[in-house]
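To whoever is on call:

I kicked off a structure prediction for a single chain this morning and the downstream step that reads the tokens threw a length-mismatch warning. I double-checked the sequence; it's 855 residues and nothing unusual in it as far as I can see. Pasting both halves so you can look.
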Amino acid sequence: MRLSKVVFQGLGIFACLGMVLVSVDSIPLLAEDSVIVAQSDGSGSRRRLPRGRSRSIPETSDSTGAERIPTEPASPSIDLEEPSVPTIEESPEVPTVEVEPVDGTPVVPAAQPEDIGPPPTIEPRPVQEVETSPAVTEPEVSAPASVEQETLEPLPVVPVTEPEEIAPPPALETPPVQEVEIPSSVTEPEIVAPASVERESLEQVPVTPTTEPKMVVPPPVNATPRVQEVETLPAVTEPERSAPASVEKEILEQTPIVPTTQPENIAPPTTIEPPLVEEVDIQPAQTMPAVQPADSQPAGRRLPSGRSRSTVERPAPRTQPQAVAGEEPSRAQIDEFQRSNFIPIRDRWRIGYANNFLDPYAQNVLKGDYAIIGQNIFLNVIGISESLFEARSVPTPQGISRNRAGSGEFFGRGRQLFFNQNLVASIEIFQGSTGFKPRDWAVRFTPVFNYNYLDVEERNIVNLDIREGTNRSDYQLALQELFVEARLWELSPRFDFISMRLGIQGFTSDFRGFIFADNAPGVRFFGNFLNNRYQWNIAYFNLLEKDTNSMLNSLEIRNRRVIVANIYKQDFIFKGYTTQFSFHYDRDVAGDEDPDGQIYDRNGFLVRPARLGTLRPHNVHAYYLGWAGDGHIGRWNVSHAFYQVLGKSTFDPVAGRDVKINAQLAALEVSYDIDWWRPKVSVFYASGDRNPVDDTARGFDSILDNVNFAGNGFSYFNRQGFLLSATGVFLNNRFSFLNDLRSSKIQGQSQFTNPGVILVSGGVDIEATPKLKVLLNYNYLWFASTASLEFVLHREDLRQSIGHDASFGFIYRPLLNQNIVLNGGLAFLFPTGGLEDIQGDKGLYSAFFSAAFTF
């Protein structure tokens, strides 16, 4: 046994003398089944092989202090198949180690790529040169007790492969390699690992012995060489490899190209053609794989340690100036990029410009889709045609001259036909992209042309002068909007803002229009804060006189001022529910500032002061404190309001004295959505005055309401207003539920000595189709108190009930938008109790149809 070892050692030394000492181009990275190497600590400690074996590492170093890496002995009994070739990234050149020639044999260096330079930051440890002596024996290999005896024998080196799921490249074939004879006197060169190679990556790459062929054509940087199976001498010892503990990913990507084993399932590159390598004559020895250049590695593959490597892409032919990575692009490169990626147009708004002014559905310069000045000033033109035809019956007392001879009844015929036509043109110029933030400023101008016609069956209805007959036609040009708006401040990056609007403008102070809804001149500050969760308004209005027949603005200033302040909080307690707190101040100084103290409407009837009780001009100062809410709580829809009004009236026509005001309003509507229909119930209460002659007025009245509640405009009692017999005032006014005894809602003064009203309602909204909505509603009404009615009518024991109000309506949108909206409704009021005592038991009806066309 001793003798055989000496013989094999001698043969190994003799074979090594024939090898050529070369400088390596790359550092082989060890794979999972290769030898684990580490930096030597000079202690000769034992090292661990990959399968549990361990070996003693001798202290071998050259004159520079760098550790020498011996080669593991190969087993000639293992036949290895031709390996495939993986890829790794190129790295800078590693300094070579000079070895003194043995027996005068010259050392032939291997061909190095000319364009690979040394790494900028990695300096290898110095390597001390150690002479190889024939008497050097192979270091002893010790195995743990648990390893079987066969592992103590020289182990064959098996080609390391990547995981099985990686398929071998079918397109790469290994060219033939010429065999060359290597002199036996050449010894194997020392291989030195760079100091910065990471231990983990070294453990993943197989060991490749270096042999020197006679003629080998060095592959180009981006080429993948093909290496035929080679055999190493059986006596060649494994070089010891050392590496530091940590290397950054960039260094691994620049590691020199080292032959290693090709993974089985790596897809072949499609664009790189490797050069052929001439055959070399290698003595039979251990077969070791080779490493392909990194540019043949498919994209997305990972290193054995789990890290991903970047691939080297072949640069495409440059047909235009291009910027190099890490360099600032030149002006020519930027210009070329812009010319090749953008199409010159007039401006960004004219992309696909159709230029059809008559089509409101396509992009249109008249609808704010294109800027008219610069890039941020737009024009929005809206045209509306509203047509209304209405047939109704209302309690109508006969005038001083009867229309029909022999008629002795107090109430005459109450049939009326009414037609109203509005032509609206709204022109607005504004600046700002309103889809993302509030506009910067705006100017709006909205004139309205109105024509109306009324036909009745009794005189003294269309005009105070009975000679005017029983029908009337009228027209008017009104100005409903004329204002400027500007955004004053932005409060947050989320476009919380403060804006101001000055001029004639529309404003509704609450959700359902219970207190104030009008188009009036004034100044209004509004905005939001805390990411639009809060909205607020502070407004001051000086009301205009209204036209009697069209109910639109006239150009005459009225001596009535209104101040409104409110704040809205979204998602108050419940998601989807918005609450509101508000303050209103109504300052009506008609008694002090109206000329001659009396105002007549366009038809000749007295409206201020009201023809009720004592005729005397007076002032009204009323303060409204309110809390309202609207939204949904889960699937329940809730809308409610409560208002308390305080103040004073310098002279009340019913009480005949100065009175204090103390009245209340409450409303609640609850509905529940069930698929395509929504049942709902409503309650409405406005307090009445139980003692009309004391110094406190307890009947509730609004400033100028436009109620949308309990059937709104489809309900008879809400839509129609009718005169109170034997007086010059209305029991209730058009589009209002309040029994307030006003001479006119739009021209008269608030009257707080009134009977009030209580309403209970039930109905359902039905989405019959996406285009058609049907509304069914039923109201039952009665007076909150009849004391003021008994005092005015000089009657006793009036009952409280008013009657049953049943209505049906529909809303039809044939285009599924608001451009064409058709409305219609039919309602009946069946008087009971108190209304029968006032005007009889004759039933009343209301039928209407309206069509709105919007451009």
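Update from on-call: the warning came from a stale cache, not from the record. Cleared it. Sanity check on the structure: Confidence is low (pLDDT under 50) at residues 20-120, 127-167, 169-272, 274-300.
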